[in-house]
Amino acid sequence: MKDGTRNLLAKADRAVLAAQALLETVGPEFAAGRAYYAMFYVAEALLHEQGLQFSKHSAVHAAFGREFAKTGRLDYKFHRWLINAFDARLQDDYGSEVVLTEERVLEILGQAREFLESARQFVGTTAEP
Predict the structure, then answer these.
(1) Phi, psi of 52 (to 5 degrees)
(2) Which of 13, 32, 67, 92 is deepest in the core (most CB within 10 A)?
(3) What percent of the chain has pLDDT over 70?
């Protein structure tokens, strides 16, 4: 596994922990953002492992879909979850009202954890010796 990949997966771990802490202390609208970023860092890590890097969220989303979801290398649900979490983050970051419930953020957090675990397994099976 490349160092950058390892660092991004560790960052995703910390984002999950931050999302959980924010959910417990501040509320769902702030936790949703960290939960999305956990998934974003996972997608970046997987792309980084393939030698791909991007500077825009939309480019990461598109490349992840192209390289992993459409090819079947990883379950398509992870791409859908990434996009849905991004939409949720935008809604609560830029909206004037809290839209997401605690239950929805817990669902997104569970998806982030599953995505992270799947990425670790994938990278572990494809890592260079």
Answers:
(1) -115, 135
(2) 32
(3) 94
**Residue in the structure block whose two tokens are 């890097």:** 53
Task: Give the pair of three-digit tokens for residue 113.
Answer: 């954890």
The pLDDT tens digits of the residues spanning 73-83 come to 999 999 999 99
Q: Which DSSP category does 26 fall into? A: T
DSSP string, 30-96: HHHHHHHHHHHHHHHHHHHHTT---SSHHHHHHHHIIIIITTTSS-HHHHHHHHHHHHHHHHHHH-S
Return all residues near 35 (Cβ < 8 A) that are at least 6 apart.
Answer: 15, 16, 19, 85, 89, 105, 108, 109, 112
